[in-house]
């Protein structure tokens, strides 16, 4: 297979990652329809999202422990996982009598996403030894757009059965997997890595720079996926309180979440001029401020004020994501970079499960207008960790 020039490789990886990660929130986009099949199921929004996250965490650890993308061709791993994830995603269209089967298929979809998102980054690193920060900005941007895309599909297929969204995302995943397999051979900088060692990977936390970047990332993850998961609920509640607003929930969910894809790319480019840490801190501070100010805008009678606010939140909430990945990689022990990144990634996604479940639990106890102020805990602690390193 003839090698493609690196200038043509990155767009293929980015588009393929976008197509395959459209599976991530496919269940969330059609949640209102799925609920009708399981009227007795409780906390379905939180549990559906958490099972994908849990599957991703489990998959990441398994793939790292067995060094799957080092032993086998990363492009082939991406291909197999993209096809398998599409099939597990498709399985929720079956006549499922037990909600546990629905959750299992979402878990398995998340498990296979571990062979798509991190492996896509590895494929990029095998081609782009220099300027990886910019490449990561585009790759994480593709993940964000892919995550948002099912909401747009829901908008376009509003008059069709909900299963059309699932069919479409599964087809897109197959296309993305095939594009990587046929168009992206193994990169010139591909090297076999070490096997996963949990204890050794902890050594990165002895480095102050690594530790501050990791805790900044953890704070970012506490906020981000919970904001994404509950955004449709925010819009639905606003519509119920302000019936004249008539916000198109799937469309605005896509636009707000998808705007973060643009900010990821912009953040990666800005970091080359102003530094990754500075841009990450600014973005984290803005998104944290959005958490604290959220009651003002959720109470607002102006739909325009609410939407502008949500777009600012969507943009700032993801702009720091590729920058934290770059900072963590830069400060990780060179011989243990892969295992250190794997551990940080797993902890970050584990935190999203806790955050989603906490917000879901609190939603039954407090006014939903004030609910999302709790998400500010993550950015505040993340900023403290970054400031501590800066002044130490």
Automatic annotation (TrEMBL):
Name all Major facilitator superfamily (MFS) profile domain ranges: 1-392
**PROSITE patterns in the cross-refs:** MFS
Q: Which GO terms describe its cellular component?
A: plasma membrane
Q: What Pfam families does the annotation carry?
A: MFS_1
Per UniProt, the keywords (alphabetical) are: Membrane, Transmembrane, Transmembrane helix
Q: Which residues cross the membrane?
A: 12-31, 51-68, 77-97, 103-120, 132-152, 164-184, 215-237, 249-270, 279-298, 304-329, 341-363, 369-387
Q: Which InterPro entries match?
A: MFS, MFS_dom, MFS_trans_sf
Q: Name one GO molecular function term.
A: transmembrane transporter activity
The protein's name in its UniProt record: Predicted arabinose efflux permease, MFS family
């Amino acid at each position: 297979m003839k090698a493609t020039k690196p200038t043509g490789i990155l767009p293929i990886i980015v588009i393929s990652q976008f197509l395959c990660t459209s599976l991530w929130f496919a269940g969330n986009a059609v949640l209102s329809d799925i609920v009708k099949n399981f009227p007795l199921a409780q906390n379905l929004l939180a549990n559906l999202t958490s099972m994908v996250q849990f599957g991703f965490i489990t998959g990441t650890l398994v793939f790292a422990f067995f060094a799957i993308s080092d032993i086998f061709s990363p492009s082939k791993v991406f291909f197999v996982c993209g096809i398998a994830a599409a099939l597990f995603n498709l399985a929720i269209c079956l006549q499922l009598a037990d909600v546990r089967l629905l959750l299992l298929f979402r878990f398995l979809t998340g498990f296979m996403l571990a062979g798509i998102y991190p492996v896509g980054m590895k494929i990029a690193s095998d081609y782009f030894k220099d300027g990886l920060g910019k490449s990561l900005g585009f790759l994480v941007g593709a993940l964000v757009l892919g995550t948002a895309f099912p909401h747009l599909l829901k908008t376009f297929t509003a008059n069709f059965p909900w299963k059309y969204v699932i069919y479409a995302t599964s087809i897109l995943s197959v296309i993305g997997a095939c594009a990587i397999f046929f168009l992206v051979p193994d990169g010139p900088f591909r090297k076999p890595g070490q096997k996963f060692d949990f204890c050794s990977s902890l050594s990165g936390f002895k480095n102050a720079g690594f530790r501050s970047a990791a805790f900044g990332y953890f704070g970012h993850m506490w906020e981000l996926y919970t904001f994404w998961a509950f955004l449709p609920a925010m819009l639905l509640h606003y519509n119920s309180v302000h019936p004249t607003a008539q916000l198109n929930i799937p469309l605005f969910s896509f636009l707000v979440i998808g705007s973060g894809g643009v900010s990821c790319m912009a953040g990666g480019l800005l970091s080359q001029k102003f530094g990754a840490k500075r841009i990450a801190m600014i973005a984290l501070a803005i998104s944290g401020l959005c958490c604290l100010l959220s009651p003002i805008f959720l109470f607002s009678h102006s739909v325009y004020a609410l939407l502008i606010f949500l777009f600012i939140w969507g943009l700032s909430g993801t702009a720091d994501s590729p920058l934290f990945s770059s900072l963590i990689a830069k400060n990780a022990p060179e011989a243990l970079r892969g295992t250190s990144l794997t551990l940080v990634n797993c902890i970050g996604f584990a935190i999203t499960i806790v955050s989603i479940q906490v917000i879901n639990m609190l939603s039954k106890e407090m006014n939903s207008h004030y609910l999302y102020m709790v998400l500010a805990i993550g950015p505040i602690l993340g900023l403290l960790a970054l400031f501590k390193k800066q002044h130490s």
